[in-house]
Amino acid sequence: MPETPQRGETIPVILITGCSSGIGRHCAFALQTRGWRIFATARRAGDVEALRADGLTDALLLDVDCDDSIQHAVDTMLARTRGRIDAVFNNAGFGQPGALEDLPRAALREQFETNVLGAHAVTRRVLPAMRAQGHGRIIQHSSVLGFIGLPWRGAYNASKYALEGLTDTLRQELHGTGIEAVLIQTGPVTSRFRANGRSKFERWIDATASPHRQAYAAVTERLSRAGDPPFTKDADAVARRLIAALESTRPKPRYHVTLPTHVFKGLKRALGTRTLDRIVRRTGG
């Protein structure tokens, strides 16, 4: 992968999903200032127009839940770049709160459709062009919950564990092609994640009929709380790791963002499962 390009050099191209707000939007602008050509995407036409108006002129409509939308966006990008695609950042996603026994099949399907199958579908669409040019970066937005299972976040935990498994396999299968598969594991980052989670909780969970109704009081309080939880970083912390993953000549398989991610990674290596479970229960409400 090239370093930040100088005037007259070929400009590297990246496709980023989930850019309507938060991490995706911030990373798009951060990379643009470093000389990348940004194909920022969002699933609503109004958000795409807002991105274009703010200076991301190649913004595209892309709904990761729809194969036709993915194909159209990728085909449009490749037509504009004459087949060049240096990287994709699979950032789009959301978190479905709720105890697993309260979540119907449809809620889990919706969670996996966006967080796992959507990322997989986008990756499949860009890989032929990357193989043809002999290089590329697949950057997946994972989470501390991709390796630590917190209670009342089971759907999201499962989706990120799945994304990690897909990416580890992809890294093996792409060995020797010049294409790297990388995970960025974030903890609490300023975004609309909690607000979006609250709407999903209200859609799928009947708290009054649940054996977890007492615990849900804490869940809804957390999702509604003003301000950020402890150790929250702003989106620039993710952008810095993304830049490292994109511009390093030998990227790490995983990049950790926020103190909780680093701490839990260390604890998982050092402790037995039941000891770790006790710590998780005390911090995971």
UniProtKB/TrEMBL annotation:
Keywords from the named record: Oxidoreductase
Superkingdom of the organism of origin: Bacteria
Record Gene3D superfamilies: NAD(P)-binding Rossmann-like Domain
InterPro entries: NAD(P)-bd_dom_sf, Sc_DH/Rdtase_CS, SDR_fam
Molecular-function GO terms, alphabetical: oxidoreductase activity
CDD domains: 17beta-HSD-like_SDR_c (cd05374)
Cleavable signal peptide: none
PROSITE patterns recorded: ADH_SHORT
Family designation: Belongs to the short-chain dehydrogenases/reductases (SDR) family.
Name of protein: Short-chain dehydrogenase
Source organism of the structure: Spiribacter curvatus
